[in-house]
Design brief:
Elements: H1 26-29, H2 42-52, H3 57-68, E1 70-71, E2 74-75, H4 77-82, H5 84-87, H6 97-123, H7 129-149, H8 156-181, H9 196-208
Antiparallel strand pairs: 1-2
Helix pairs in contact: 3-6, 7-8, 8-9
Length: about 210
Amino acid sequence: MTEDSPSPTAPAENGDTDVDDIEIPEDVRRYERFTKMDGARYERANDFLRDRTYITAREWAIARLCADFRTETGVEMTKIGNHLPELVPFMTDTYTPQAVNQARAAFEEKVRKAGATFLYGAMCDFFTAEQLDDVMYEATEVAKFLLEVEGVDLAVGAELDGEERISSTMREVRAQSAALRHDELTCPHCGEEFTASDAATDDAADASD
């Protein structure tokens, strides 16, 4: 079985439990996160994600469910696994709690690694401020699309505000990374000294150009 393949549950230990006999809880019946994907096949969702992210459709769906079915004492792994086909249209098999936890852990690990990779790229001076804006724009568009598929209604004003805050944060990241790369914030090319706030201002000017 590959990483991209769904991991169905093993038979129940006592061998007597029929999935069709499991009563569907009210919160499962009311769950509407993925209704926009009614009729979609796992392979299609997976191909879309694999072309644009590091996660699989299985990891995406289960990470979302783990966030939505989190309680004060933890995540309802058994409920998610038993009712996965009812919760997510493109998932056709039930999962064991262990399989749910495995997919959630895989999602978390990939997010951490992708975050470290992106942050290094932003801090290592490989990208210009304009190129970083392009990277962030593309990433934001994919993230917004996934949220919309999940049923999140994104207002235009909130989108623009979020994009501006992200751009502002990335300019600050570039400014602070200059302090790590250059002793006393001295330009290695001309010897000019500058502060982190100066670098942030320069990046903002570059972005506006």
